[in-house]
Specification:
15 strands; about 15% strand; four-stranded antiparallel beta sheet; alpha/beta
């Protein structure tokens, strides 16, 4: 007979005790129960290029990837990732020793942090941050040290003095996200140069999440941190096909870095999924070779959707921070007479049939994010038009 678990000890590992059901699950369930438009979770409501979907079908039919693919990823995709980095950024990587394919960027983040952190190591992350960062740092036994992006002249900006002051003798790595989710900030050349100088000066590793690299707008420019002096050998760059090609369910991500760092990450990754997404890897190898016109059209479409939803939010009374990157808009609800994003988002479906996410879930300092709410605009134009129309009725 199995021994009963002691009731005095919680079932969930104490490192994960603060992480319950995600806000995304809660709000998506609320969207379904109320019939609301879900602008909370960041996934497109249409598929990506038809030729890439057909490439996946072709791989399935040809028997490519239906069994375990190679641990580092299929050679075709690793070669395509390396070619993509050189074509767009002038970064040369060896596909055999400096590229690792993962089950989406989420696994890349987890494997990287599990590989590189020891218990007690400090990780500086830009707050607000994607919720898996906090959970992965906790699982690795690290200590997260948030440096808060704060509103300034219509966008959220990094205080470089605050970043420098956060580094201690226990700091192991910097976790950077640009273009930044949820604020839409794209770090400037000067900001990235300062981060690079700090990393070199203090001999820090840097993990940089660049999954929205092809979604930058207006005058913003995506500049990989690995291109800065002294950074290639100490930077783990994380990319994702889901955000650039609108096949988020395929879960194809990757890591590019120096051989020693890739080997370390692979050592952790092999005990997570081992391998994943076999046929989809072949399809994504073709996606990464799409012409520049694809990326230009993709950006133009998302820019139009950004402006459509931003205009609707402004007319509804929100203060809108128009993003320079990603497909999220952060808003301030205080002009509406509100100050608690959780209460606001839980009531919003009944008020006007739209779902959003309270930014406070992305903060350690919850009070800093309390009045901010995030909307996703990676939806069909008609859906965004209807959402804007519904939001306009809030005060009615």
């Amino acid at each position: 007979m199995a021994r009963m678990t002691s009731s005095s000890r919680p079932l969930l590992n104490r490192r994960l005790a603060e992480f319950g059901t995600t806000i995304f699950a809660e709000m998506s369930a609320l969207a379904l129960s109320t019939g609301s438009i879900n602008l909370g979770q960041g996934f497109p409501d249409t598929d990506g290029p038809e030729e890439i979907r057909e490439a996946a079908v072709r791989a399935l039919r040809d028997g490519r990837g239906n069994q375990y693919p190679p641990g580092p990823g299929v050679p075709e995709l690793r070669t395509a990732i390396a070619a993509h980095q050189e074509r767009h950024y002038g970064l040369a990587y060896d596909p055999d020793t400096e590229v690792l394919v993962t089950a989406g960027a989420t696994e890349a983040i987890a494997a990287t942090l599990l590989a590189l952190l020891e218990p007690g190591d400090e990780v500086i992350a830009l707050e607000p941050y994607y919720d898996s960062y906090a959970a992965c740092i906790a699982m690795a036994g690290g200590t997260r040290v948030p440096v808060t992006l704060r509103p300034h002249e219509g966008s959220f900006r990094l205080d470089l003095d605050e970043l420098r002051a956060a580094v201690t003798d226990r700091t192991r790595l910097l976790l950077i996200n640009t273009p930044h989710n949820p604020t839409g900030t794209v770090l400037t050349r000067a900001e990235l140069a300062a981060i690079a100088e700090l990393a070199v000066e203090r001999d820090l590793l840097v993990v940089t999440d660049e999954v929205y690299e092809h979604l930058v707008f207006d005058d913003a420019e995506h500049l990989p941190l690995a291109t800065f002096p002294g950074m290639r050998e100490r930077t783990v760059t994380i990319g994702s096909a889901g955000k650039s090609f609108s096949f988020t369910g395929w879960k194809v991500g990757w890591v590019t870095s120096a051989p020693g760092l890739v080997t370390a990450v692979r050592s952790a990754k092999q005990f997570l999924t081992y391998v994943a997404s076999g046929p989809f890897q072949y399809a994504m190898a073709e996606a990464l070779r799409l012409p520049d016109s694809y990326f230009a059209d993709f950006r133009a479409d998302m820019l139009a959707k950004r402006d459509l939803l931003a205009g609707g939010l402004e007319r509804a009374g929100f203060k809108v921070f128009r993003p320079a990157g990603t497909y999220f808009i952060t808003t301030d609800i205080r002009p509406l007479g509100e100050s608690d994003g959780f209460t606001f988002c839980r009531a919003l479906p009944e008020r006007c049939g739209v779902v959003a996410i309270p930014n406070a879930v992305f903060y350690d300092h919850r009070e800093q994010g309390a009045p901010f709410v995030r909307f996703a605009f990676c939806k069909r134009t008609g859906v965004l038009e209807e959402a804007a129309s519904r939001l306009k009725t809030m005060g009615a």
